[in-house]
Amino acid sequence: MQRRNFLLGLFSLAIFAPINALAAIWNKAAFEAIKLDDVSKNLNVNHETYSGDIQITAPDRAENGAIVQVGIKSNIVNTESIAILVEKNPTALIANFKFSNGAEPFVVTRIKMAETSDIKVVVKAGNQYFTNSKNVVVLENGCG
Amino acid sequence: MGVVEMDDNMKMRAQLKGDYVEVKVLMSHPMETGRRKDDFGQLVAAHFIQLVTATLNGKVVLEAQWGTGISKNPYLTFRLKGAKLGDIVAVTWHDNLGATATQEIAVTQG
C-alpha cells in the first residue's frame, strides 16, 4: 500500500510539475487554517501591534456576502505585505499581497464573507507586524 | 488536466494619475470554494486562483497568494510609483488546477 502511494506520488509529480512548483510558493497551511490564531502562526506572525496607519475601506453593511469590495492602504513605513483575513469565514485567510520595486502598499479587491464579521488586516514591515480591523454586517451568506 | 492557456479572460487598464500609475484588473474565473453544491446536491470541486504576479517592464512589483475567499471573477486595483507612459504592466495568474493566464498593457494617461 505504501509502495503504491509512493508510485502514485511519483506519477502525479511527473504530470503536475508546474503545479508542484506553485504549491511550494502557496502557503497551504495558512490558507487551510480555520482560526485567526492558526493563520497568524502559519504566516510566522508572533506578535501584532494595533495600528491606525492601516486604512480599511469597506461597507458597514453588505447586502450580498459574495461580493464585498475592500480597499486597504498602509501608511506604515517599509510595508512589505498586506494580508486580508475574515474571522468568521470557513477559512480565515483571504489573500496575502507582497509589494516590491515601487508598488505602493495599496490594494482594492472583492472578497466573500459568510456572515457578519471583522475584516482583519495584517501588515508586515521589516520584522514587525501591525494590524487593524473593520466590522462588516453581512445580510446574505456569500460563501456558498 | 495540465497547463491550459486562456486568452481574452483578463481586462486590464494602467493609467498615469499624477505621481503614480493605477492598474485595474478584472479576471474571468469561477473561484469555486469546494464547499458549494450544484443543483444535484453534488459538491463542486475547488477551482480558484492561487497566485497572481504583476510586473512593470519585466520586474516583479506585486505577488499575491489567494485562497477561496476572493470573489468570483476577481477584481484587483494596485498602484505603482515611478512608472511612466508607455511602460508595460503584465499580470499573470495560476490556479489550483494548473490553468494560467497572462495579459499585458501599456501605461496610458489617466
UniProtKB/TrEMBL annotation, chain A:
Gene3D superfamilies: SoxY domain. It holds the Pfam family SoxY. Residues 51-143 form the Ig-like SoxY domain. InterPro entries: SoxY (IPR032711), SoxY_sf (IPR038162), Sulphur_oxidation_SoxY (IPR016568). This is Sulfur oxidation protein SoxY. It comes from mine drainage metagenome.
UniProtKB/TrEMBL annotation, chain B:
InterPro entries: Ig-like_fold (IPR013783), Ig_E-set (IPR014756), SoxZ (IPR030995), SoxZ_dom (IPR014880). Pfam families: SoxZ (PF08770). Residues 12-105 form the Sulphur oxidation protein SoxZ domain. Coiled coil: none annotated. This is Sulfur oxidation protein SoxZ. It comes from mine drainage metagenome.
